[in-house]
Amino acid sequence: MSNLLSRRVALLGEPNHLSLLTQCLHGIERECLRVDSDGQLALTPHPKALGSALTHPQITTDYSEALLEFITPALADPASTLASLEQTHRYTYSKLGGEYLWSQSMPCALPAEEVIPIARYGDSHIGKLKYVYRQGLALRYGKTMQCIAGIHYNFSLPDQLWPLLQSLDSCNQCAQDYQSVSYIAMIRNFRRYSWLLMYLFGASPALDVGFMRGRPHSLQQLDADTLYLPYATSLRMSDLGYQSHAQAELTPCYNDLASYTDSLRQAVGTPYLPYVEIGTRNANGDWLQLNTNILQIENEYYSSIRPKRVTYSGERPIQALVARGVQYIEVRCLDINPFLPMGINLEQAQFLDAFLLYCALQESPALDHDECMACTENFLKVVKEGRRPGLHLQRKGAQVELKAWANQLLDEIQQMADLLDRSHGGVSHSQALQAQREKVADVRLTPSAQVLEQLQGESFAQFALRQSKLHADYFNRQPLSPEQNAELEQTSADSLREQAEIEANQEGDFDTFVATYQASILGHDEPLSS
């Protein structure tokens, strides 16, 4: 371990500090497509029984009306976070009426682009804005690409931990700035080492043949209906032939919060000629996209991790970061594991905690251009060929074998697992890490290898539907208790009522609302109310 990492681990391991690590917060967002009994994309509206996609705190939609998103509260125990996610799955299945939740990150066989339904959020200004934004995504990237699903893992260290580290570092910054600087340093280390997560948890080495829509690609034919790459771990996180030329120059390397927010603010305010040529409205005056800039809003920037801050009503994410600093990080590169009913389990969450703690406590020098490029290249190399025997990555200008570097990292992360186990009691974090060591030793144990093993006898779509139905049986076998069901029924009803109130009480017209919303990131306007 580095000297700084050793000192930080020793500090947090002191008896009067050890309990702090039980106060980390964990939240999960799980996306999944609704499909019919034949594995075709559901073209039905978002079930009203699930409440309002605009205002429900736990059940919403992402890009498509058929792309559900489940959101947990942020809880100290990841087992509690997963229990909340499981409860939401069980409730949803009780309302699906014969539909299924797709078990994979890569989508089912999709209908023609124009048939894929964009998510609807009602008649309020904010609901319409969310719809127009998604229309813009369809124009810019195509609807097919927006039907990919994943898992986002939100993680924060306790507020009381930062003053301890700041004192150890003898840093005289204000507390908010120190915390933000530390989270940005954590993100830099995540960029350095996240290729390891792709090897360990990537679960999308194959996809339905129709996904590419006839575009040129380098994928191989596994069977008549399935494309794949033989050593891929996560085609979801590869370019798949879809590259955003508009975002090509937008590559924040997270050397400080200000440069990150400034780069996104600039992208939201800079026109991009191909989008300018499309315009914001069609000949009938109907909205096509929110603006003609590189990004319509900051969340359009695709990244494997984001610095985050809980926003106030109507507040932009960048406004919140600038005003109050980084509060937590959002890991966005995790595939849905098709062998797990919720796509993620406690073992994975506990390893992620150790990995993220390592990223937070390890030294994290600024990324220069060459290292920034190497981080990107390592990540893309592993998602496309991470299981290739003898694969080498770049580290400090030299080639290093993936397996050797992975074992070195796991040896250092072991110290974090031990620290977390001492804090929580038990050995579950070390056991979770041992399971990852076994995947490095035997590539056949990785989810991506296990998926390809299943595809020796059936197509991607057949395997995915089979797993979807197995997961449905799992959730339906154990219905919610009457109390749990009543609570979720009430939440759904409250969300519908809240949406109706927003629609009834809004003022002004939609055009003015959009203009104010756009101006809020470019100037210093007060956050607008939804």
UniProtKB/TrEMBL annotation:
Annotated EC: 6.3.2.2
Record has ATP-binding as a keyword: yes
Pathway in which the depicted protein is active: Sulfur metabolism; glutathione biosynthesis; glutathione from L-cysteine and L-glutamate: step 1/2
A GO term from the CC aspect: cytosol
Enzyme class: ligase
Catalytic reactions of this protein: L-cysteine + L-glutamate + ATP = gamma-L-glutamyl-L-cysteine + ADP + phosphate + H(+)
InterPro entries xrefs: Gln_synth/guanido_kin_cat_dom, Glu_cys_ligase, Glut_cys_ligase
Start and end residues of each Glutamate--cysteine ligase domain: 11-382
Biased composition regions of type Polar residues, renumbered to the chain: 480-494
Keywords: ATP-binding, Glutathione biosynthesis, Ligase, Nucleotide-binding
Record bears the keyword Nucleotide-binding: yes
GO MF entries: ATP binding; glutamate-cysteine ligase activity; metal ion binding
Region (Disordered): 480-509
Biological process, per Gene Ontology: glutathione biosynthetic process
PANTHER family, per database record: GLUTAMATE--CYSTEINE LIGASE
Family note: Belongs to the glutamate--cysteine ligase type 1 family. Type 1 subfamily.
Protein name: Glutamate--cysteine ligase
